Amino acid sequence: MATATAHHENSNYLNHEKGLWSWLTTLDHKRIGLLYFITVALFFLVGGIFALLIRTELYSVGETIMTAEQYARVMTYHGAVMVFLVIIPGIPAFLGNFFLPIQIGAKDVAFPRLNLLSWYCLLLGAGIALTSLFFGGADTGWTFYTPYSIKHSPAVICMALGVFVAGFSSILTGLNFVVTTHKLRAPGMTMNRIPLFVWALYSTAIIQVLATPVLGITVLLLAAENIFGIGFFDPALGGDPVLFQHFFWFYSHPAVYIMILPAFGVISELITTFARKTIFGYTAIAYSSLAIAAVSFFVWGHHMFVSGQSEFAGIVFSFLTMLVGVPTAIKLFNWMATLYKGSINLSAPMLYALGFMFLFTIGGVTGIFLATIATDVHFHDTYFVVAHFHYVMVGGTLMSIMGGIFYWFPKMFGRLCNDAWARVSFVFIFVGFNVTFFPQFVLGSLGMPRRYFDYLPEFQHLNRISTIGSYLIGIGFIVGLITIIHGLLKGEKSGPNPWGGKTLEWTTASPPPHENFLTTPVVTAGPYEYR
Amino acid sequence: MSTVKSSSTGHHHAHHYESADHEYQSSKQGVWLFLCTEILMFGGLFVGYAIFHHLFPETFKVGSKFTDVRYGATNTVVLLASSLSMALGIYYNQIRDKNKAVMALLFTLLCGVIFMVIKYLEYSHKIHLGLMPGDWYRGNAEELAQYVGGLEIPKNLPLYFSFYFMMTGLHGIHVLVGMGLITWVTIRTARGEFGPEYYTPVEGVGLFWHLVDLVWIYLFPLLYLVS
Amino acid sequence: MAHGTHEHHIIPLKTYWTVFAALIFLTVVTVAAAQIDFGALNALVAFGIASVKASLVLGIFMHLKYDNMMNRVIIGSGVFFLLLFWFFSIIDIVTRIPQNSTL
Amino acid sequence: MSFKPLVLLSLLLPGVAGASTFMPPAATVTAGEVDSVYAFLLITSLISFIILIGGMIFFVFKYKRKSATDKTAYITHDHTLEFVWSFIPFLIFMFVFAWGWKIYHDMRHSPEGALEVHVMAKKWDWRFLYKNGKEVTSGLDDKGQKAPATMVVPVGKPVKLIMASEKISAGSTDPMDRPVLHSFFIPAARIKQDVVPGRYTTMWFQLDQPGDYWVFCTEFCGSGHSAMKARISAVPVADFEKWLAAEGTGEMTLADKGRALYSSKACAGCHSADGTRVVGPTFKSAWGASRDIEGGGKATVDENYVRESILNPNAKVAAGYPAGVMPTFAGQLSDDDVKALIEFIKTLK
């Protein structure tokens, strides 16, 4: 196959074919990755605007800029867009699509057509879901709890079907990654030599394949509940509203790990490269990803400690939830140990990685507060939970997406972003993040419930701080976006390996050629051989 | 597509695979993963069935009296026969017997049609009695009681029909999709595109069709023979 | 990662027909068994027979018996996680203060 | 440098000791126990955070890149170290799990002889019904603003809530007006419990300090969610008794209302109140008993069982009694009527 060498030196995936149509019909995983980048970024903008609207409304007691009805909708769309259209596809479908095949020395993913189809599924799903806005909008929260969500409302039906279709996107991506990892590794690339980012994506893919179908049937049932009133989740026919929560969280708890496991993978890459040191405990990190993926399937009931679930089930789920904490702790300790005696370069991607560790540690330890059944009864459905999962999802996933973008940017586009401005964006996001969400831990402890349009006057002070913080985050992302656009247009040429990385993507040209490598690489050692 | 290359043996495999067999094995693994997702999706309904059957055994018992075992059993046999002919369709492709392969696949398709016709008869019977899911239920308790020999009609009987229609409906959609896919591979077989060295699409469609059969194997006792 | 072009296993016609006969026979058994009351075991019997049928279809029609390990693991994990889903949902339902409908 | 984390720790610990100040003042014994777990978790979390992030920051400064050609140590793993940092968190997790379990168990099991109050949740209001028929609803304050319903309870006595979700307007046949999930949350008592349509859920607390406490709804239930508040006023027992007997009390106690329904709805025709066997099981000493069910299984005669037996009589027929005899009373008895009958049965000791 090496006969297909480039016609000229500068041939790469970006100029391999030309025109918008070539992008919309591309089967190249790198281009599909970028298509995902653009869509996810747009959805992030939409979800972010909703977030700022929420915080602005909560700036002061009483109605500030919108009515309670509007608030319920804004809150619903913020959650649904961020979860289903931003964080779930975020790392796997964008960075994963681009780098998983390259990191294992493959020419493409196993099923390029399915890969493209998955992107269209995401667009179609998003389209259907957002159509609900024309029917007055859904106001159920992103969790669609029954019986509140059973209201024969076209808006809820659209949301449910949109999520169903977007779920296909996630399934197809996961399926593709599993087969790619199994079957398309370059010669010598054993499972013990694949980079940790690939391990993380592989574990994620397993969850995507095994859990998403249950979300599919759940939202289908929800749609049927709204169309026919089938009664599974409606007490009027003997149905059980709590059963809906079982169905929903059987997917949505593992989905939390769909969101965070790939972030772990990115962080492993960033820490090794920027500490220029082999990862500490490769096996432990790799298998802890798998362990998290497996255990994540039987902890879902911790979302339901006060739902009317039985006491026995609550205790079992609390116990199992504690078990997930262990592999997570292992990862954090391993990353810290990797820094020991390293040569640490504090470029923007590394700052994001360190910021991730800081925020994720807080997100992680507060998770134990929520796993402990006695304290969870108090914290459940308060702002403590909101703060906790934002520390994990935003402090974790979004920090690592940003770090990943700045890290792989030179590989994707052959240019470097301005590191100083990237650091400025980090400072704004990191500081803003803590200002926004740390007060919410206190608010939650004090008893302010989540999804509140209005609150007691004594909560106003902390809410104001939180709102101001959210604007800082907004500024940080705008600075980040400008830095990226500037890098695209004016960034200095980077060369194939600006950071001194050791994984396979740094051995090929920047941007990589259409088939990733001019000659298929032969692997003889592990991924992080910094000797 | 530009991504497909011809190798010396004359069959095709995409540029990122080493050989036709490599591609075949990968594709098959992909199909199995997809079937795994199907199992979990139907599984959601089965779990719901298990729970509500546990809670309301009477409802399910009475509900199943409105199904006709003869129809259900016939459909089971029809689907099993179609599974056999599907397997034969692959077999004849494996030994490059194009005509028999096409015959087998057409027979499979015919079975799909018979299955759907019987399903249509069953559905119209139930709709006629007003036995629809949930809110759409229009059953008259006295009339229905006569139908099942004086058994008391449980108040949440619509729940049974919600399950009946959700489960058979989702299954029916899969049958229709399967029929579409079989039509596609039949045409390709007739064009002579498959042979012992390349028959991945037939194999994949076959696996899907067998899964549809598998689901029915469980649906039949659950919906028709509940005691 | 050698991917040899070894021959795909071809199952003889006779096996297919035997399996088909067995499946039809088991369908008859299912219907017959439904007429007999095994008490609490009713569901188990029906489910058991269905599972025998399912394994025949999986093993022979779907060639899993001759397939590689990974495909068996895949389908096995699908079933395993389904059972897990069923198990944890049902332990809530049966250990609750009995869930009472208010029809 | 290595003692730096310790110094930090010693500076922060006193702050953490007062950690429960993040929580509203604890008003119950359970709340105090929850706060102890919370304080333990806070301190352990802080120590872990300092070890991890302190270590991280320390390494970042100590091993900052000095030249473009720095050599680094090649350390792949260390089994002892890895075991230690897996096992110690595991032990801590198991410890807090067990601790949390114990407290949770106490939260879920109300002591004998608790004062029982019926709580009804609807979009978007709370309503309280005492056994003597006294009903507390929300009203308007002097300024014409909505004043949340105030449940008055005695200080130092356990109170058990029997909670149900109801439609906005009782007896409404509008399919859009369906009961939804709510959640009863008393921050000062650190407890909450969802109110689930179609069944009763219960919770209990014992307030030891007189005072007024907030109740929030914590399960999203629509645009009025954040306005769905109530107050709990804990007063000395004597004051409580006086309040309970004061005007505004219902025309009769719940149990009396139940006794009246028992006659007027002809329950008495089949269920005796004195232990004699008529058509159905007697109500005498039925409450709390464990009963064999036709077709196997047992059921405890509690709120949920009685409610089900009234509305769906053939769901769990007592062993030895004929099925299919009793008609359903769904539609004939309101939610409040069912509660009254339950209270009546409770009195037949």
Description:
The complex is a heterotetramer of chains A (531), B (227), C (103) and D (349). With 531 residues, chain A is mostly helical. Chain A has 14 helices and no strands. Residues 1-7 of chain A have low confidence and may be disordered. Chain B has 227 residues and is mostly helical. Chain B has a single domain, classed as Cytochrome c oxidase, subunit III, four-helix bundle (Four Helix Bundle (Hemerythrin (Met), subunit A)), CATH 1.20.120.80. Chain B contains seven helices and two strands; from the N terminus they run ββααααααα. Chain B has a two-stranded antiparallel sheet with strand order 1-2. In chain B, β1 and β2 form a beta hairpin. In chain B, α1 packs parallel to α7 (200-224) and α6 (157-190) packs antiparallel against α7. Chain B is elongated, with a radius of gyration of 21 Å. Chain C is built from three helices and no strands. With 103 residues, chain C is an all-alpha fold. The N and C termini of chain C lie far apart (62 Å). The model of chain D is unreliable at 14-20 (pLDDT under 50). Chain D is elongated, with a radius of gyration of 28 Å. Chains in contact: A-B, A-C, A-D, B-C, B-D, C-D. Chain B binds chain D through residues 56, 58, 135, 152, 155, and chain D through 175, 312, 314-315, 324, 328, 330.
Labels describing this entry:
heterotetramer; A: 531 residues; mainly alpha; Cytochrome C Oxidase, Chain A; 14 helices; B: 227 residues; Four Helix Bundle (Hemerythrin (Met), subunit A); two-stranded antiparallel ribbon; 74% helix
